[in-house]
Amino acid sequence: MSPSTRWFLPETPDVIGMLRRQADISAEGMAAFAEWACGNTARAEDVRVAEHQCDDIRRSLVAAVSEAFTTPLQPEDLFQLSRDLDKVINGAKNTVRESEVMGVPPDQATADMAVLLAEGVDHIRTAFAALGVRVGKSPVSATQAADAAVKSQRNLERVYRQAAGDLLQLSDIAEITGRREFYRRVSAISDDIVSVADRIWYSQVKES
């Protein structure tokens, strides 16, 4: 191919690199969320900062995928992976805000679930790092890391069920209602992590 021919080919943006950067910041934000839930209220601002940074990366990723001549994964998979991961950090930010507005501070169950959420996103980060890398050159495949993310969220389900059952021991209806909705919001973040993991599997099966 002559230099002049190459000059006319559109650039191929590093969309996988963008996706990995989004995962890195999401993992940092969820680590801050876990610390917030464990009592370090100052980390709430770090959750909000991470959410805004992820929004910026997501917008850049969407624009890059829309303009790219080719992409290492199917465009719809890139869109979905980025969108579902964005829902995770958005959920964390909204949970912090709801806690502050409603005056419902995180309790031990919330802290336990938040730690598992952070663990799940860390596995997602590992999975994204392995996207596009041949298994022989990566210590873990994307699907293996996705499976680990799902497993961590199955552990969260057990914490959630126990916490919901413990609410029956309370007599204050307002507290029961507030805590139940709070637990549900945290559980919804877990569902979004599982959605990301499922999409990783789907994208890898199509590429194999």
SSE order, as H and E? HHHHHHH
| CATH top level assignment | Mainly Alpha
CATH superfamily: Phosphate transport system protein phou homolog 2, domain 2
The structure class reads mainly alpha
Into which percentage range does the β-strand content fall?
under 5%
The overall strand count is 0
Q: Based on the structure given, which CATH architecture is correct?
A: Up-down Bundle
CA-to-CA gap between the ends? Answer: 29 Å
Which segments are poorly predicted (pLDDT under 50) over 5 or more consecutive residues?
none
- Would you give the CATH topology? Methane Monooxygenase Hydroxylase, Chain G, domain 1
Strand count, sense and barrel status of the largest sheet are: none
**Tally of discrete structural domains:** 1
Shape field: elongated
